[in-house]
Each structure stands twice: as C-alpha cells, then as structure tokens.
C-alpha cells in the first residue's frame, strides 16, 4: 500500500481525540478553575478543592452523561459524513452512466428485462398464491365433497348436507350453495345472470359482511321463507344501479318473479364465486338423497385441522351408509382446504415453475451486467488505483463501486416496473379463462417491494464481480501493485468466462423447459376431442320455472325452438344438451345392470350422463359405432332408452355387444334399454382420458337449462342473430346467453397450459438473447484484449481463416460447456415439470438435442462477427496500439 494510503487513516485517528479523554479534560478544567476561585477568596487548597467538587455535583454521573452526549455527537457526524459521501457516490455514478451511454443503455435494458419479468411473475404469484382470500380467517375454511371408489368428488344431496351439519364434531358451522342461472328482464334485452342459491349460514361461514344492507336471515333459509329477496354482487350493483345505495329496497324481475334487493356484497367477493346475485336456498330433509346438487363449505372449530375434520366426516359418512344403504353405499367425504380447492395443485405447480424460470432469467441478467462491469473495470483499474493512492480506503472504493451497481440496478428497476405495469393488463386478459384469481393481478405494494428488493439484490450481486476483480487481481500487491506495474486485471477474463458459461447453462434450462412445455402444448392441441367443433355455434337457455313449471311445456319449447333454428338458412342441424362440451359442468349417476348380480365392495358402477335431443349427435359430429342414436320416437311415453360411449361399453360389457342390454338407475324402477354406442368424447379436460358416458333422451329426462348446439355451413357467428330472433319469437323475455363458437370453449379448455407455454416461450427467447449477447460480448472483448497478439500472428504469416477459427472455437467452446452443464441440471430437475406436461416425457431426448444445437449454433453466429473483425486487423496498427 502506498505511504499516503497506508498512513492517512492512522493519522486521522490520531488527530481525533477520544470522547472519554475530551470529557475528562473538560471536567478537570472546570474543577480547576472553580478551585482557583476559592483559593483566591482565602480558602486553603484542600478545602477549596472539596468545596469546588461539592458545588459541581456528582462528577461520575456528569462524566457519563457528557460521554454519552459526545458519542451521540460523533455518531451524528459520522452519519452526516456517510450521507454526504453517499450523495457524492450517487452523483458520480450518474455521471459515469451519462459518460458511457452505450454501456448504460445495454445494462439498463438487460436489467429491465430481468427485473421486469421477475416482478410481473411475482405479481401473478402474489395474486394467485400469496394474496389472502377475501374471507374471514380463510385458513379455517374447507370445501366438502362426496367421494366413492370410482368418483374423485361430487356434490352433496340436501338430506346429506343437513346430516353432515348436524352430526359432525369439528365444524363451527357449514353452508351450502347451488349454481343457478336466472333471467333478468327490464331495462333492455333480457339478460342471463349467473346466480348462486345459498343457505343463510353461507355468508356466516365465510365470515364476510355485506357492504350495504344485510344478508339472508335464518327464516329465509327455510322452505318458503326466502321467496322474494336477493343480495347483489358489488360488480352487478355498480353496473345496474351505478353504486347507488338507493338500490336497497328496489325490486328485480328474475326468471319471472319479483325479488327485493336486501344487500350488496363487498368488492372482490364475486370473483371467487362467479355470481352476480345470491338467492336464498332452503335444503329440505325430504328431498331425494341420491340427488347430488349442493356444494358444501365449512368453517373449522378453533384448533381443529383439515385432517381431523376429514376423519370426523368419514365417520359421519359411514353412519349415513349404514342408515341409507340404497343411496349412500360406499360413499365417503373428502375435505379440502379453500386454498387447495380454489388454486389446485396443477396451477400451483405452474406458478412455482414460472417463479423458478423467472429467477433464472434474473440471474442471467445479473451475469450479463456483471460481464459488462468487468469489461469496464479493466479500463478503470488505473483510475481506481490512483484514487487509492490519494488516500481512498479499500472500503471507500468498494462502496463507490457497489453504489454505482445499485444505481444502475435501480434505473433498470424503474424501467422493469414500468414494463410490469404495462404487462399486467395483458396477463389478466390472457389468463382470465384459466388462472384462478388472475383478475386480482395488480402492481400493489407487495409487487413494488419485490421489484425494489430484487433490484437492490441484483445490484449487489453483479456489483461484487468487478469489486472482487479489482481488489484481488494479480499484480504483486493487489490493487496498489497494479498502480506500480501498470498490469491489467488478469483474473477477470476467467471470471467473465465463468459467468458466460453460467449464463448459457441457465439459458439452456429455460430453453429445455420451454421446449417441453411447448411440446406438451402441441400434443394437447392435437388431441381429438371426439367431435367436430368447427362450424358449431353454442348458446345457453334457462327456462324460468315460474313460466315453465311442467316438463311438458319445457319439452315443447325446446322442440319448437330447435325446429325453427334448423330451418334457418345456413343451418345444417341443431340439437341441445344439458351440458355442452367444456362448459364447466358434469352430471353423474350410479347404475346397475339388469340381470347381473350386484357388484362387490368398491365396484359400484357410475357414469356421467347427458340429456340430449335427437339432433345433438349430428350437430356435434359424434360418430355412431353401433345401433342407433336418440330418435324422435323416444318420447315421454315410449320405452326408456340410453346411448352409451365406447368407454362405457368396454368397461361394463367387455367382449359383449351392449345393444339390447338394460340398466337401472336410482329413483326409477323402469329399466333403460341400450340402443346404441357412439364414439368417446372429451368434454371436461383435453388432457383427461374419455370417461364412461351415457346419453338420455331429452323427452324422457327433461331439463329446464339447456345448451343449443347448432352446426352451420359457414362461420358460426353469422348465425347468432338468427338464433336469437327465433328464440325471442317464442319468448321475448328469455335471455340467450353464452352465444359463441364451440371452438372457443374447446380453446378455453387448454387456456391454462397455453398461458404457461406463452410465458415460457417469452422467457426462453429472452434467455437466448441474453446468452447470445453475453457470448458476443466476451468474444469481442477478448479480441480487443488480444489485438497485439493477433496482429503479431498476422504479421508472422497466420492466415485470416485460422484467426477466425480460433476465435470461433473460444465462443463455441464456452457455449458448449454451458450447454453441457445446463442439460445436466435440466435432466436432474426434469421431474419437477412432470405435473404440467401432457404427452411429453420430462427427459424427451429430441428436446434436449434440439436445445443443444440451437444454443451452440447461436453462439457460433454471435462469435462470427468479432472473429471476422479480428481476421481483418491491420498488423502494423495492432502492434502500435500498445
């Protein structure tokens, strides 16, 4: 260390008198002056000293107080000096950025990409996983499902819900709900509203108070006690009444009946339930126990756990099985926390994978900026050594370098957060149909805090690279040795190469993930759903029971509506079903085979079912395999018939022709005759295997809420107006909802994996760009550093082709090493992607080989430009440059 730098700090310490010595000297001076005054007044020295001490007070206490004040003064001075120096460092850092606009632009854009992407994905994780649910004490909320050996989960019957509520020992309360569609008439075209019928305990269980008015009273949850009252969602209240509190007490015409508005729920509450209005629900113990239509929620007692509640409910289910063996045989109860129910394991896994991916992207950004700073550090080493020689301590220099890094990262963070703010609406729109709670995505204080913390952390991370290179570089004496020798930072080249290898390895990880997720998406889009969605228009109708109380009137309406729609020009066929493919619903029922002995324990037969009209199969394009489909002759008074899927035929009648066989269902003593077998369809999730499915005649199982399925000769949307007109010609007060091409419903079924694929593709593209820029930077920097060597080789007769080859070998070698490391890590971590992949193995060899080829090829292209520039150097100029 140079003399000035070595002795400056000790000299400063010598000049600064310690607080204790300063206080002792000050107190001694005061006592001495007072003693002299008393001596001058005629007192002897001993008495004068004693009197001065007595008059002065407790010297020890005064000494301690003064020392404390002195230390505080010194601390304040040090803080003021530190703040002043920090201000100088920040101003110097900003001057450095202005003086090097090219470096600043590349570094800021790199950091903006990494910090912006990580902040955006953290926002998704915050909205989906971290933001508290809009309920009171959500950790105590659970969802209850019925389960059997063959059915994962289903709704509860009204009597079962009442028994669950009465017999359990672990729940503070339970509530029930049922999805409904109601028609709103008045104020324009009729509108179908998503509604939820709920028990009065529903709101109490959730722990949510209304924003205005009240929720349902207990008497309104008894049969006949809640007619005519409705609670509105916050969104519907704003849309219909403009947020006016005078809405309370007004009436709405819903499905032909008048309802008085008694309350409005707070904002955000409807986002979980997807309802515009809530109506009273009154479960009856006399309802059919085998009719499962209620969703059940519960609030655990304080101290109770979900596992304990599950055990409790299994005991309750066993008691009900013993009491009602015909309807509850082999039934049990599954308890799921609200977080697991609303988010789901697959979505949680997707979000976590995205967080890991964006973390890799952020580390890549750090590595690239660290490389840029290392390149600049070589040019600044003499400047920094000179500052050290003039008295700047090692800590002061380190603080200056880290301040410059943090300032750079904060500037990048500002652009990154701006990027996140711009990306939030796009992500909300892209994930609206697939990601739970994505509508809550916003750049709130948590997201901003994460962005700032990420910028500070990245600033420190990439700032440590040049600090380490400058402080520990070779040159016989470290930093000051380079001042005497004029040496460059020899070890920085190895560090930069290591950073590039790490950056390429992380890019390979992201590219492998994107390749696997993209391949999975391609497999999913090629899945045959078993029907032809192209050219099909769908629409949903719900007949109000007030105006259509008899099933005969419901059947007559749909029959006439389909007849009129089929006659519309451009319509090839028209049908209807109670649940359209991928509309989000399902219905299932247990059954027995006529003439077959009852199945053993755990072998209950169950199947999903659909009520369909005769034109349904032609409109949807479901192929007939055997027998016939539902016909006009299969009316209410005709023998009951059923058409089954191939999967049901294989499972129930393996090796036997099912046509002519008969089944029985609960609550119906009449057997159902199998008259045909049709192809399997996927109508719940594209990635799921086809399930056993049976189709019932709509005339024999009439349903008030139906989906129209209309096959057209041209674009389906062109027939939407005609379909509405034909429906309104029969009933002008009936809303026609969900008018859209069937292909949109099929596309929405794959929306969640598509969302993941798109984000992964963006990350992979960004990672590849960062890796290419990094390889180009280190090769170009290497050429600059080796100008004299390359010039000497050219002067001695080396061919330009050889220079190009050597330079390419350097860049491609680093990329190849990074690719090998990245592929190894990707293979080791591939099992974590298994839960979000479909039809593609996590160790798919083609993906790994393709990624390796892409990354090495891009590295070769990135190295080509500096390699060609090196081969064209003028040997004379290169030798003179040093």
Beta-strand share of residues: 5-15%
Question: What share of residues is helical?
Answer: 40-55%
| Cα radius of gyration in angstroms | 39 Å
Strand order of the largest sheet: 2-3-8-5-7-6
Tell the overall outline: globular
Largest sheet: 6 strands, mixed, barrel
Average pLDDT works out at 81
Structural features, described:
By secondary structure, this protein is of the alpha+beta class. The chain is built from 27 helices and 21 strands. The strands form three sheets. A six-stranded mixed barrel has the order 2-3-8-5-7-6. A six-stranded mixed beta barrel has the order 13-14-19-16-18-17. A hairpin with a 7-residue loop joins β17 and β18 (672-678). It is globular.
Essential attributes:
globular, 882 residues, disordered N terminus, 6-stranded mixed beta barrel, single chain, alpha+beta, 6-stranded mixed β-barrel, 27 helices
Brief summary of the model shown:
This protein is 55% helix and 15% strand. With 882 residues, it is α+β, with helices and mostly antiparallel strands.
SSE map:
Layout: H1 3-15, H2 19-40, H3 45-56, H4 59-99, H5 101-130, E1 141-147, H6 158-167, E2 171-185, E3 191-198, H7 201-206, E4 212-213, E5 229-232, H8 234-241, E6 251-254, E7 257-264, H9 269-273, E8 277-280, E9 295-300, H10 306-323, H11 325-328, E10 332-337, H12 338-343, H13 345-389, H14 394-430, H15 445-472, H16 478-485, H17 492-525, E11 536-542, H18 551-566, E12 571-577, E13 588-593, E14 605-612, H19 616-620, E15 624-627, E16 641-645, H20 646-652, E17 662-664, E18 672-678, E19 693-697, E20 705-712, H21 720-730, E21 737-741, H22 742-749, H23 751-785, H24 787-795, H25 800-829, H26 845-871, H27 875-880
Parallel strand pairs: 3-8, 5-7, 14-19, 16-18
Antiparallel strand pairs: 1-9, 1-10, 2-3, 2-6, 2-9, 4-7, 5-8, 6-7, 11-20, 11-21, 12-20, 13-14, 13-17, 15-18, 16-19, 17-18
């Amino acid at each position: 260390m140079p003399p000035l730098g070595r002795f400056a700090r000790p000299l400063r310490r010598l000049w600064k008198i310690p607080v204790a010595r300063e206080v002792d000297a000050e107190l001694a001076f005061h006592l001495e002056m007072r003693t002299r005054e008393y001596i001058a007044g005629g007192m002897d020295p001993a008495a004068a000293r004693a009197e001065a001490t007595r008059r002065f007070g407790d010297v020890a206490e005064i000494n301690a107080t003064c020392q404390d004040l002195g230390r505080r003064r010194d601390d304040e001075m040090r803080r003021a000096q530190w703040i002043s120096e920090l201000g100088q460092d920040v101003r110097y850092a900003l001057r450095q950025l202005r003086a090097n606009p090219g470096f600043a632009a590349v570094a800021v854009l790199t950091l903006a990409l990494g910090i912006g992407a990580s902040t955006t994905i953290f926002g998704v994780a915050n909205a989906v996983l971290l933001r508290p649910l809009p309920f009171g004490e959500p950790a105590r909320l659970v969802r209850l499902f019925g389960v059997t050996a063959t059915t994962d989960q289903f709704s509860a019957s009204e009597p079962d819900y009442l028994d669950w509520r009465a017999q359990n020992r672990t729940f503070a309360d339970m509530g029930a709900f049922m999805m409904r569609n109601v028609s709103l008439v008045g104020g324009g075209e009729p509108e179908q509203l998503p509604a939820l019928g709920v028990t009065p305990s529903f709101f109490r269980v959730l722990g949510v108070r209304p924003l205005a008015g009240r929720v349902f009273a207990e008497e309104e949850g008894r049969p006949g006690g809640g007619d005519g009252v409705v609670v509105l969602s916050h969104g519907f209240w704003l849309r219909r009444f403009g947020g006016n509190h005078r809405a309370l007490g007004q009436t709405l015409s819903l499905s032909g009946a008048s309802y008085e508005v008694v309350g409005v729920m707070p904002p955000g509450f409807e986002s979980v339930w997807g309802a515009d209005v809530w109506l009273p629900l009154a479960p009856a113990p006399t309802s059919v126990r085998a009719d499962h239509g209620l969703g059940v929620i519960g609030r655990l007692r304080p101290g109770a756990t979900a596992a304990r509640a599950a055990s409790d409910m299994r005991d309750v289910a066993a008691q009900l099985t013993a009491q009602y063996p015909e309807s509850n045989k082999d039934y049990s109860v599954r308890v799921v926390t609200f977080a697991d129910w609303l988010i789901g394991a697959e979505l949680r896994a997707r979000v976590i994978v995205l967080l890991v991916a964006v973390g890799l992207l952020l580390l890549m950004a750090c590595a690239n900026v660290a490389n840029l700073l290392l390149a600049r550090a070589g040019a600044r080493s003499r400047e920094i050594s000179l500052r050290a020689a003039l008295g700047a301590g090692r800590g002061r220099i380190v603080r200056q370098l880290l301040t410059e890094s943090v300032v750079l990262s904060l500037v990048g963070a500002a652009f990154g957060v701006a990027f996140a703010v711009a990306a939030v609406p796009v992500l909300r729109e892209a994930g609206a149909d697939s990601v739970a709670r994505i509508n809550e995505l916003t750049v709130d204080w948590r997201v901003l805090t994460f962005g700032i913390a990420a910028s500070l952390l990245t600033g420190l991370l990439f700032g440590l690279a040049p600090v380490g290179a400058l402080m520990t570089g070779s040159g016989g004496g470290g930093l000051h040795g380079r001042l005497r020798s004029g040496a460059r930072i020899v070890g920085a080249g190895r560090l930069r190469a290591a950073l590039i290898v790490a950056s390429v390895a992380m890019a390979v990880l992201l590219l492998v993930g994107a390749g696997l997720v993209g391949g999975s998406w391609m497999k999913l889009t090629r899945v045959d759903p078993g029907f032809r969605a192209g050219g099909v228009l769908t629409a949903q109708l719900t007949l109000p029971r007030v105006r259509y109380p008899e099933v005969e009137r419901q059947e007559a309406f749909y029959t006439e509506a389909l007849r009129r729609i089929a006659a519309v020009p451009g319509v090839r066929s028209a049908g209807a079903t109670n649940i359209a493919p991928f509309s989000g619903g399902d219905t299932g029922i247990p059954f027995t085979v006529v003439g077959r002995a009852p199945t053993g324990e755990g072998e209950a037969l169950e199947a999903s079912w659909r009520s369909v009209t005769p034109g349904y199969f032609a409109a949807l394009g479901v192929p007939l395999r055997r027998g016939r489909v539902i016909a006009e002759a299969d009316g209410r008074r005709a023998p009951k018939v059923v058409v089954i899927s191939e999967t049901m035929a294989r499972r129930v009648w393996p090796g036997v022709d099912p046509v002519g066989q008969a089944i029985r269902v609960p609550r119906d003593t009449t057997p159902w005759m199998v008259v045909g077998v049709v192809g399997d369809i996927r109508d719940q999730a594209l990635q799921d295997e086809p399930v056993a499915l049976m189709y019932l005649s709509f005339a024999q199982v009439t349903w008030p809420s139906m989906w129209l399925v209309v096959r057209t000769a041209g674009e389906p949307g062109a027939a939407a107006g005609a379909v509405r007109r034909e429906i309104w010609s029969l009933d002008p007060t009936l809303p026609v909802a969900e008018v859209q091409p069937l292909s949109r419903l099929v596309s929405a079924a794959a929306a969640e994996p598509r969302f993941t694929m798109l984000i992964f593709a963006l990350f992979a593209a960004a990672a590849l760009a960062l890796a290419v820029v990094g390889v180009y930077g280190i090769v170009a920097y290497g050429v600059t550093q080796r100008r004299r060597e390359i010039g000497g080789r050219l002067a001695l007769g080396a061919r330009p082709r050889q220079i190009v080859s050597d330079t390419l070998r350097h860049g491609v070698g680093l990329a190849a090493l990074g690719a090998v490391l990245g592929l190894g890590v990707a293979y080791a971590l591939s099992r974590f992607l298994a839960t979000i992949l479909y039809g593609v193995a996590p160790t798919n060899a083609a993906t790994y080989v393709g990624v390796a080829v892409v990354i090495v090829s891009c590295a070769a292209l990135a190295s080509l430009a500096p390699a060609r520039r090196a081969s064209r150097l003028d040997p004379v100029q290169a030798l003179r440059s040093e």
